[in-house]
Inverse folding.
């Protein structure tokens, strides 16, 4: 399975035992370019909170009742938990659950033993850091005026508890009601735990959870009923969500957001798969765009910047090896669907920031 898709499907089908495992990350750096070796992989053990009856029951419900789209939220949280040396998210392990932590840890261990150039979860680490940095830059571009941040398909996202740049922002988390309820139960369990309540220091000005299915026609109405103000500066965050939607559903969501450019300063942060990525698992991934930097202007955004994993603003010190798969893909034209060396599909993930305003003058955003 090509690595980009493999990175999204983090759940192993085989049981494994979690062990403390220091792993040197020099396989992710280039020995030729003289870059320094990375530190050893952080030691990891399951938090005691994951063994409590309440948390076990909650994660059992996730395993038994959630579909692949909903379970992807736990996979993302596992990536953030196990890449804690670059991502500070103390709630991630609780939100991920034992199964996803064990499975990803086993993959990381095997990658390190095999001296893989791409360690499992690195794409999630880079993606998280990219969204964090672009969100901070977008809020800064509003000149510290009160802003809204809408997380569509919020899942197990804990940004409202870990990013200080949200201190003046009202955060709206939109997701299925069952996802929000489970997340609330896990957060309450963390709060009730003597050893974990300190994790729940909210950094956002406010958090509002909106139970809605963005595949339907009423999610914007529910968002506004919950206090969202269409005329207020807004950053829309769509991380790891668009490709699970159908083409018509994804286009409708993007059109609704683009329409807000005529009302106020509007910033969209989203990731897009290209066609080869989605065709490898057509039962799970549906929407794709090979040229999102062409699609979004056609919908009404006046500024669009596209990045690929390994680009200067999507690197974060994790992509030193020039033979890393992502760096090899970046050297090929985006119109190439199969790699000329071995015929494998060119599976790409595009990280895209787009913006617009009533005056169509977009403040410069830091890289």
């Amino acid at each position: 399975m090509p690595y980009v898709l493999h990175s999204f499907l983090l759940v192993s089908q085989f049981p494994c035992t979690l062990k403390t495992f220091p792993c040197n990350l020099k396989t992710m750096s280039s020995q030729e370019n003289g870059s320094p070796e990375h530190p050893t992989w952080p030691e990891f053990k399951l938090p005691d909170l994951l063994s409590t009856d309440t948390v076990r029951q909650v994660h059992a419900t996730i395993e038994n009742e959630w579909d692949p789209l909903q379970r992807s939220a736990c996979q993302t949280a596992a990536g953030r938990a196990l890449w804690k040396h670059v991502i500070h998210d103390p709630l991630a392990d609780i939100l991920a659950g034992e199964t996803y932590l064990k499975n990803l840890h086993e993959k990381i261990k095997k990658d390190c033993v095999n001296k893989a150039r791409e360690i499992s979860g690195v794409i999630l680490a880079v993606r998280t850091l990219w969204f964090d940095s672009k969100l901070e830059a977008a809020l800064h571009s509003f000149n510290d005026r009160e802003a809204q941040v809408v997380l569509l398909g919020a899942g197990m996202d804990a940004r409202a508890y870990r990013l200080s740049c949200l201190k003046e922002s009202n955060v709206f988390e939109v997701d299925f009601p069952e996802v929000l309820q489970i997340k609330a139960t896990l957060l309450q369990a963390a709060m009730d735990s003597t050893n974990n309540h300190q994790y729940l220091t909210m950094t956002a000005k406010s958090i509002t959870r909106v139970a809605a299915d963005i595949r339907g026609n009423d999610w914007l109405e529910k968002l506004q009923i919950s206090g969202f103000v269409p005329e207020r500066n807004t950053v829309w965050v769509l991380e790891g969500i668009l490709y699970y939607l159908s083409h018509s559903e994804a286009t409708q969501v993007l059109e609704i957001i683009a329409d807000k450019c005529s009302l106020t300063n509007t910033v969209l942060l989203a990731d897009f798969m290209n066609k080869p990525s989605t065709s490898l698992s057509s039962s799970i991934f549906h929407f794709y765009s090979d040229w999102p930097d062409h699609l979004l202007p056609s919908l009404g955004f006046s500024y669009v910047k596209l990045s690929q994993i390994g680009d200067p603003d999507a690197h974060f010190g994790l992509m030193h090896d020039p033979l890393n798969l992502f760096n090899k893909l970046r050297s090929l034209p985006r119109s190439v669907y199969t790699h000329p060396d071995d015929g494998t599909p060119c599976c790409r993930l595009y990280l895209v920031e787009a913006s617009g305003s009533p005056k169509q003058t977009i403040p410069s955003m830091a890289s």
